[in-house]
Description:
By secondary structure, the protein is an alpha/beta fold. It is 47% helix and 14% strand. The protein is built from 19 helices and 16 strands. The protein has helices spanning 12-24, 35-44, 61-71, 86-94, 107-120, 149-162, 178-188, 209-214, 231-234, 250-262, 288-293, 299-305, 322-337, 346-354, 360-374, 387-404, 416-438, 443-450, 454-468, and strands at 4-8, 28-32, 49-53, 76-81, 99-102, 121-125, 131-135, 168-171, 196-200, 239-243, 264-265, 274-275, 279-284, 308-311, 343-344, 379-380. The strands form five sheets. The protein has a five-stranded parallel β-sheet with strand order 2-1-3-4-5, with helices on both faces. A five-stranded parallel β-sheet has the order 9-10-13-8-14. The two termini are 45 Å apart. Mean pLDDT is 81; it is low at 124-132, 134-141, 397-417 and 466-470.
Amino acid sequence: MYKRILIIDDDLDLCTLLKRFLSRNGYEIEVTHSGLAGIEKFKRSSFDIVICDYRLGDKDGKDVLEEIIVHDPNAIVLIITGYSDIKTAVDVIKSGAYDYITKPLVPGEILNVLETISKEWFPVNDGTEKTKKIRKQHEDGNFLRGQSARSRDLYQQVEIISNTDYSVIIYGESGTGKEVIAHTIHNLGKRKDKPFVAIDCGTLSKELSGSELFGHVKGSFTGALADKDGHFEMANGGTLFLDEVGNLSYEIQASLLRVIQERKFKKVGGTKEMPLDIRIIVASNENLQDAYKKGRFREDLYHRFNEFSINIPNLSNRKEDIPSFADFFLQKTRLELDKSISGFDDDVMELFIDYSWPGNLRELRNVIRRAALLTDRHKISLQSLPFEIVSSGQTRITSTAMMQNKMFDPANNSKTGDVLKDTASKAEYEAILKALQQVNFNKSKAAELLNIDRKTLYNKIRTYEGNMAL
């Protein structure tokens, strides 16, 4: 279990309360009140986990995260954020943060996140004073198989390929669950008792990617103060998952090709060749065949990876799975928050099914976690959902009602003027709503964006206020 935690937050009262609470639960806590001080303390000492506020006086959480990851690419960083910053926090997660915690902080939720980290990661000594943190393989209960025809086809492919050692390319948009599918392939295969090591290629710097993948020996470059194991060595015997593999530089692609062909590798600066027994699964939201045709990816490496490919459908293309996925995420969140939430109101589930889910399963999970945190009822209601989801449903309902109105009957030529008028009103409503969303509902800024005066905007909002729910 991880014990040493660094808290970086400029809210003195929050830091005091958090330190007192976590200390009572067996954690060793250090606190700093600025981004710069936190980065320096992290570099000078050894911490298992960093809890960092997104909004600091001197830096934002993303800057702190990036500097910490440069110093230690295996760092586990949690971002503290307000509700209005959730989209930004999700972007920070893509930059390497483990998760985010929303304000107001719920003690039970924080403990559950820390316990999850202990369950999902384990330390591996690499011969230095620090330890690496390697993600454990998922248990069978950490994912849910959908029942739609597309989902059944997906998992049929997973089961077919899992008992082989074929390299696999997993395609899918962000948030579709590419890493979960990779875990599933590993867990169902003969290497399930060996390590599963995942690495996000998008976070690898060109300068350090060779060291991260293959390791290095002491003195091989400036800052190499001790020998270090790379991800290939840590995954030896098991599975290496390369997420967003298309982000690797051309030079690293060439090194990868040699390692895969020869089944042995050298550490950066080393002379000893080490044998390699590994299965490689890669993921990309870009078609790698198109990438090599455009000169952005090596064709020979593509063919090495492309022994089998799997395409994960978007959530919007398997809407019949949404109720079961939503219930699955709710059950997990209910346990995390220790809340008695039995399900969703009917209008919430209808909205979930109609919504486009551009962030796919990740967005659904985040929405349910946020709603469960905010709700004080036995079922999640519309009041607990983010505005952008509720407003999307209102826009759809308004549009449907207008289109079903008699004045939209093409055969009714006497109503042509009304048709044009209501079509214009619909467009105006959507333009105002979009502008308000862009400026976080600051009406003065929205008026500037729309190039109208504030009084006119207020009048128009009053006209549409039954639909806007502002």
